[in-house]
Structures are given as C-alpha cells and as structure tokens.
Amino acid sequence: MKTKLDEARDVINTVDKEMIHLFIKRMAAVRIIAEYKLENDIPVLDSIREESIIHKNLELLMNKKLEKYYLEFFNGVLNSSKSYQKELIDEFEKNKK
Questions:
Q1: What would the mean pLDDT of 75-80 be, rounded to a whole number?
Q2: In this structure, what DSSP letter does residue 66 have?
Q3: Within a 10 A sphere around the Cβ of 88, how many other Cβ atoms?
Q4: Which residue segment(s) compose the domain that 20 sits in?
Q5: Which of these, 2, 29, 42, 97, could form a disulfide with 37 (CB 3.0-4.6 Å)?
Q6: Total tally of structural domains belonging to the chain
Q7: Are 37 and 43 in contact (CB under 8 A)?
Q8: What CATH number does the domain containing 63 carry?
Q9: Which secondary structure element, helix H or strand E, spans residue 71, and what is its range?
Q10: Is the dihedral of CA 8, 70, 49, 23 positive or negative?
Q11: What's residue 96's pLDDT?
C-alpha cells in the first residue's frame, strides 16, 4: 500500500514529465523568437513583454501564498529563455560569416 508520501511523489513525477514536454515546446518557440529578433534587429530583453506575462500569469494564480514561489520559478524560466535566445543568436551570427 502506498503512503501519502509515495502518492505525492507520484504526482510530482507525473507533473515533471508534463513540464519537460512543455519546456521543449516553449524552447522551440523561443528559437523562432530568436530568429525573428535577429532578422529584425530586436534585442533579446523585452522588459515590457516580461512584465506583461508575469502580471497575466499572477492573475491566474489563485493561491496568493504561492506567488513568491511562482515568481522564483517563472523568473528562472524567463532567464533560461533569454539565455537560450542569446546563445542561438550568437550561433546564427557565426554561421552567417
């Protein structure tokens, strides 16, 4: 018989698998964005867009006690996305030469 701990870990394992698929999907979109930004000479950082996304997502968060933790989590997502964009743009520019 599973304990509550085992059941909670099963939930986390399922969520982590879903998050991997969503992460891959998000980063594929980030690649398209990086290509567009390079072609149109747009900087990686778009602070207005970031603020908008954060605000919109916080409105969806029903448990306000989790807001601090969501911000930590989502800022990590944004930082990874920007880092990946920068790396891709560097690669694209090298390949042009």
A1: 98
A2: G
A3: 20
A4: 4-96
A5: 42
A6: 1
A7: yes
A8: 1.20.59.10
A9: helix 67-96
A10: negative
A11: 79
Q: How many other C-beta atoms can be found within 10 angstroms of the C-beta atom of residue 89?
A: 16
pLDDT one-digit tens code per residue, 24-43: 999 999 999 999 999 999 99
- Convert the pLDDT of each residue in 5-29 to its tens digit: 999 999 999 999 999 999 999 999 9
CA distance to 3, 5, 29, 35, 57, per residue, from 32 (Å): 44, 40, 5, 5, 22
Two tokens, residue 31: 């690649």
What does the chain come to in residues?
97
Residue 97 has pLDDT above 90, yes or no: no
pTM value is 0.90
